[in-house]
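Quick log. Single chain, no ligands specified.
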Amino acid sequence: MGLRNRSFLPLLIFLIWVQTLVSVEAQSIPPSEYQVKAAFLYNFAKFVEWPTETLNGGEPFVIGILGRDPFNGFIDEAISGKSVRDRPIVVKRFSKIEEAAGAQILFISGSEGEKVGRLLKHLDRTPILTVSDLKRFAEQGGMIQLVMDENRVRFAVNLTAVERTGLKPSSQLLRLARIVPEGGSNKRIPSEAVYAGLSDDHRWKMPYESERREAPSHLKRKVFSGANR
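-> predicted structure:
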C-alpha cells in the first residue's frame, strides 16, 4: 500500500465505522438521526488532538451534553467500552455551562438555542470542542455543526474557532468538512474525490435510506447548500 493510500486509511475507517455502527440492530429497524450523530461525536474524539495539559493523568475523556438530551441513550451505546488515547470515555449531562468545565467535547442541545451566543462567549478560547445541530451554530462561533443534507448527516467546521483554542483537527477530518468562517458563508467546499475512491457499500450515507440511489447527489459535485438550515 503506497503512502497516498495509507494516508486515507483512517478516513476510510471513519466512514465505514459510522455506517456499520448504526447497522448492528436488525436491518428492518431504521436507525435514527441521533444514532448517527452519536457515532460522529465518538469519532470527533479520535480525529481531534487536544493540548496535552488538558488531559491530566488517567482521567476519563468526557463527552458532555448541555441541556435536554436528544440522544435517547444512543451516545452511551456508542461509547460503551471505548477509549481515546488510553482514556475511558464517559458521557455526562449538564444543565449549566459552568458544570462543563472538565469536558473535552460538549454537545449543545437545541434546548439551549436562545442562549447559544452567551454560551459560546463563555467557552471562548477554552479547549472544549463545541458541537451542535443548531442552525448557524458554526457561523456564531461554534466549532462543529451537524447538518442534515438530503437525509445524510454532514458537518461544518469553524476552523477559526477551533484553532484559537489550541485544538487540532486532523486533515482527514477536515477533508470531509465544510469550512465556515464566523459570520460568513462557505470558505471552501472540500473535494468530493475522497468519495470517488470508495465502493458503493462504503460511501458515507444515512443507513435509514430505504433504497440505494443510482447516482448519489454527493458524487455529482453538487454544492452543499449550507449549514444554516
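The radius of gyration is 17 Å.
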